[in-house]
Amino acid sequence: MNLRVNPMDNRYDPKRIEPKWQTVWDANKQFKVDEDPSREKYYLLEMFPYPSGKIHMGHVRNYTIGDVIARYKRMRGFNVLHPMGWDAFGMPAENAAIANNTHPAAWTYANIDAMREQLKRMGYSYDWDREFATCAPDYYKWEQWLFLKMLEKGMAYQGESYVNWCDTCQTVLANEQVEAGECWRCGNPVRQKKLTQWFFKISDYAEDLLEYCDRLAGWPEKVTTMQKNWIGKSMGAEIRFQVEDSDRAIDVFTTRPDTIFGATFMCLAPEHPLVRALSRGTGLEADVDAFVERMALQSRSDRMLENYEKEGLFIGAWCLNPMTGRRMPIYIANFALMEYGTGAVMSVPAHDQRDFDFAKKYGLDIVVVIRPYDTPVEQVARTEAYVEDGVLVNSGKFTDMDNKAAQEAITDYFEKNELGRKAVSYRLRDWGISRQRYWGAPIPVIHCESCGAVPVPEEDLPVVLPEDVDLLEGGRSPLETTEAFVQTTCPKCGGPARRETDTMDTFVESSWYFERYCSPHFDRGMFDTGAVGYWMPVDQYIGGVEHAVMHLLYSRYFTRVLKDIGLVDFKEPFTRLLTQGMVCKETVQCPEHGFLYPEETRYDGDQPYCGFCNQKAAVGRVEKMSKSKKNVIDPNVLLDEYGADTVRLFCLFAAPPERSLEWSEQGVEGGFRFLNRIWRLINHWHADIQKVRPFDGDPGELDGAAKKLFSKTHQTIKKVTTDIEERFHFNTAISAVMELVNAMYAAELDMAHAHSASVMRHAVESVILLLAPVVPHITEELWEALGNEPGKLSSAWWPAYREDATISETRLMVVQVNGKVRGRFEVSADADDDAIKEKAMADENVRRFTEGKDIKKIIVVKDKLVNIVV
RNA sequence: GCCUGGGUGGCGGAAUUGGUAGACGCAAGGGACUUAAAAUCCCUUGAGGCUGAGUCCUCGUACGAGUUCGAUUCUCGUCCCAGGCACCA
Predict the structure, then answer these.
(1) Number of structural domains in chain A
(2) In A136-294, where do the E strands start and end?
(3) What local confidence, expressed as pLDDT, does residue A181 receive?
(4) Do residues A740 and A766 make contact, with C-beta atoms less than 8 angstroms apart?
(5) Are residues A367 and A447 in the same domain?
(6) Is the CB of A745 within 7 Å of strand B?
(7) Which of residues 434-493 of A touch strand B (CB under 7 A)?
């Protein structure tokens, strides 16, 4: 190889360098990949964005972390799939379209263009040939196809149920989309509404999804714990309570069958089907109906209030305690939830706080059936429910039994006598996917008056979302009134029929997009099973922790459905998961103008002033960047000022990925300074090193400053490699490179010595290679300036370290006396313990602490320290 | 209330298996260069103490105990912060 001689600018100019290399990467399709069975694959995926129009710092952080890993793995020789696309359906498009008098599609595609541009400016190494938007018919066609398969298998079904309804968004929300009683999107209160909905039967997989949580070794425990809690498995019993003077019975689910002898009344959810039936003929019908009506209107946000009062109403009927025969009045209660268990609660006021409160309010009997282990039953206080373990009392033949044992024994008794059975209950609900919105994938069903809900025949897919519609104020879906779409014929009987006008929850699109990336243009199915077989599962998935439950759980569920259909042969789509922390910044508030954007603030030292009125503004707490708090930084502004490499460097250096990142203008400045420092360093050595090859001889051939630098270089390579490989701790990896750069500045190389220049070149190349994944533009430029082939850095090999060069021949030993450091000395690596002890004892300062004292013990920790115990 | 994280200098953060607490960066202070400033380069920087300003001493990783020759790291208890769940029977 002929080493070229390339000139080098004196000044680091990202504005020139960055577009240059982005153009090269684009033109070469440098990051395009194909299946190659001869190479080990690595699928790196970041959660794709909703095309809102602009990337924000959260995206920048997420995608930077991902890009560094992708580039690193490429340098390690992996065949890396690193795609990007758009989660393009969803409500903001409709709202924006109404506000700006455009079409959601036009708005969405314009946003995609703008954001793609921004991502390219960041220098991310995507295979852009795989890009797609989920709003494209050739994407959602296959989603509709899967829906039909699920319908066939009973995995998708139509059901009538109370749903979370947002009046503002005019649509249904999944439980996961309701946050503290409010809509996750618009923040308005959510109320209960009865509607016919399409559901996916995720509950069929509750147990499997739960079980596999513990096998997701590459996931943060935090996330699997959240999923486990969300699935919410409870073990208990289902028990049948006979209604007095009736052949009806009420089934309840309880986790505390051991407290059955203390059950003194029954609570039903207002929506419970027996409520009406049992209240008939009691003279209380009118009151009961009114109560049920009122509860249905009660919004979820009301129910969430702290002071939310337990309320109930006796419905005029009794049931019988199967153990004691006691007449238990039946109530409807607002705290009983129809969605959980059987919608009926056996109330044991002595041992459940809610039941206790309810009993107190309505003057119902409280019967103690468990006493604490160390308290006789007479002394049990009755100021609150006793929910701990204890010994059964007043419980017939089970009295004196430990309550844990009694749970088993009583359940067995029920099973023998056919009064109940062991039961498991999950908190997880089926996934309601119907949305009364326009901008989503149409549900491929046709409603026929004689045939009912009929699936659209496969050959008629996709059911294309019509573009020519009139968007309506208030957000009602225009599909219902678009006759050209709605009116059709029944595929079964040929008679006139109407299309389903609901569209699918956008979480459906994001539940399989990672498979689509494997063969994004495949037109004979959801994906090419060969390609998916090669690339999937995703080796490393990266995204915000806000998707810990919904998106990740749905994706795990969909993968199971695909496996059962026979399209994939794995259950878990994401082998490793990294949830990056939030990007935060302090808020600034003017007493008159409220929160201020950074560009509306003027600083005098640390003191901000309002840009409108010049008053002193108050610095608030450090919080997650959000438009409402105006503590946001626009990535474009940073790109203009510092360039992509600086932004990338700062995002990685300021904190480890999983922790939150506090924004600091000075920190960014520091990153920029570091890049300049590297530039100047290499510029300084440029002439001396461009005609030599990096030193690759034996460390034994070196001495003095050259040897030290060579050793530091290899130590740095080792440190950076393990920091990235084992824990993605880029912050410490970068600081290691900073140390090396400092050492290079300090190195007093004797240029008369034969190896000095090549040792320096080795150090320079190492810095470039180690930083290549982090700051790809400046490193490509420097790589070229050193005479290497232009544009080839991203496919260069990650540097290797030689162990023998990382180890120095002497060790710095610390001497402690009774665990306190009293001295330190250098010792050769092969010194034996006795020699080390002797040297330690000889230390002048150590002697001051050992003189005249009994030496009890001397502990020598190899290569580290000596501790003298006196 | 329950479940997860977390608490280390003026600040962001290091310390990978129990072994020199504070790497690296920021900020601050000092010096060099300059007519000057910026930029750059170098030095200092946890707090306190001092007979011999040192290869010095004491204290110090939210707080209180414990295990250990030795604890930021392990155990128990307490406090605070962040996130998640929240009438789930």
Answers:
(1) 6
(2) 156-166, 171-173, 178-179, 182-183, 190-200, 233-243, 249-254, 265-268
(3) 67
(4) yes
(5) no
(6) yes
(7) none
Strand B closer than 7 Å to the CB of A603?
no
Residue A189 placed within a domain: yes
Asked, for residue A23, whether it belongs to a domain, the answer is no
Judge contact between A433 and A198, C-beta under 8 A: yes
Q: Distance, angstroms, CA A305 to C1' B1?
A: 14
Pick from A791, A806, A821: which residue ends a domain? A806
Quick one: what percent of chain A has pLDDT higher than 90? 59
Which CATH number do you get for residue A761?
A: 1.10.730.10
Residue A214 lies in a domain: no
Structural domain boundaries, residue A799: 662-806
DSSP state of A388: S
User: Residue A574 has what pLDDT?
Assistant: 96
A10, A16, A82, A643 from A25: Cα distances, Å:
25, 15, 14, 17
Q: Give pLDDT tens digits for A318-376.
A: 999 999 999 999 999 988 988 899 999 999 999 998 999 999 999 999 999 999 888 88
**CA–C1' span, A209 to B84, in Å?**
19
Q: What mean pLDDT is reported for chain A?
A: 89
Of A507, A537, A560, which residue is a domain's last? A507
Residues A800-808 have a mean pLDDT of: 82
CATH number at residue A245: 3.90.740.10
- Residues A377 and A332 placed together within one structural domain of the fold: yes
What span, in angstroms and rounded, lies between the C-alpha atoms of A394 and A348? Answer: 13
Of A116, A68, A32, A176, the closest CA to residue A542 belongs to A68
A806 touches strand B (CB under 7 A): no
Same domain, A420 and A442: no
Q: What is the mean pLDDT of residues A47-69?
A: 94
Tens-place pLDDT, residues A235-268: 999 999 999 999 999 999 999 999 999 999 999 9
B26 closest protein residue (CA to C1'): A667
Distance A770 CA to B52 C1' (A): 50
Q: Tell me, yes or no, whether A703 and A782 share the same domain.
A: yes
- pLDDT above 90 (res A81): yes
Mean pLDDT on A599-619: 81
Give the residue-averaged pLDDT of A524-537: 97
Please give residues of chain A from 641 to 700 whose alpha-adjacent beta carbon (CB) lies under 7 Å from any atom of strand B. Answer: 653-656, 659-662, 664, 666-667, 669-670, 673-674, 676-677, 680
Q: How far apart are the first and last CA of chain A?
A: 65
Both A381 and A279 in one domain: the answer is: yes
Determine the nucleotide nearest to A867 by Cα–C1' distance: B69
CB of A667 within 8 A of CB of A650?
yes
> Is A784 within the bounds of a domain?
yes
Looking across all nucleic acid strands, the nucleotide with the smallest C1' to CA distance from residue A347 is B89
- Stated in angstroms, how far is A66 CA from B15 C1'? 26
